[in-house]
Amino acid sequence: MNYENLFQPLEVKKTRFKNRFVMPPMATNMGITSEQALAYYGERARGGVGSVIVEGTEVRRFTSPEFVEGAAKLARRIEAAGAVPLIQLVHGRDFGAEEVDVSGSGDRRPVSKGEIGKMIEDFALAARKAQEAGFYGAEVHGAHQFFFNQFFSPAYNAREDEFGGNLVGRMKLGLETVKEIGKETEKDFLVLYRHTPVWFEGEEGYGLQESIQLVQALKEVGLDIIDISPSADEETETPFGKGAHAGLAGAVRREVNLPLIAVGKMEEAAKAEQALTQGKADLVAVGRGLIADPQLPRKVEEGRPAEIVECIKCNEKCYGNLEKGIAISCTQNPEAGREYQS
Q1: What is the pLDDT of residues 311-338, one digit of tens each?
Q2: Does residue 4 lie within any of the structural domains?
């Protein structure tokens, strides 16, 4: 099969992605400044991906000069191996020793407006420090029921101030954060946002049309790339059909002219190529497939797909190790996580 689109370069602002393969942010329990992490990420960058989004990193860590120095080593390692270094930013939703909630639940109090303002400032500062460390862009984690995603969802957000209520209020945290990152960083720095396009808790939650409005609003305040995770859902009707591969991503991309990353079954090169050809995405993220085989993109490009070590989605050494609190590995690739030893 001809994978012409997968290996076409893409330019966003002044950043050139050599191909459309993205390594998405995945927790490793390695710590991003360790020799283990440097080797792990470096091996996947050498495998041929166009860009690497380093795993979700707590924004307040960037207040440490030592941490920024360590992060710079990782950015240089990724770039030297031929990939664009990007990093995902997260907030632990704790202030001091106290963990807060969007609206208050159980023994957690609602996060105050002052704390929300400080959180936005922390994201902007972290993005600036990430840029100084050599990263080409930063991604705000607004997906998978993490804090920003909970602000967007009426299943969690019952606030009565400007950060809650209607859709405009529920979008405000994400929009203000993207806007402040843009102000704090240089104009060529890429701002990304990861978003889950459909999420319901029983009858409460949000659907595709609200997500499209969010992405359009994010674009208007300066977003450069939207990362849709997951890019498909078996129960949701899309213009491409119910449960269509990358159907949710495609629905967003049809409505908003913004570079889009789709994730979900993209380790199957034929499906990834099709998603690009059909205009559902501009970039495709391969997650566990790159843990199993860091050389996956190179093998596709060189016409050796039969040699790819496939992820069997057993979750034993990736998610399983995360739950145990130890560094991830892979049942199909025992060298994953041990690259620094070779």
Answers
A1: 999 999 999 999 999 999 999 999 999 9
A2: no
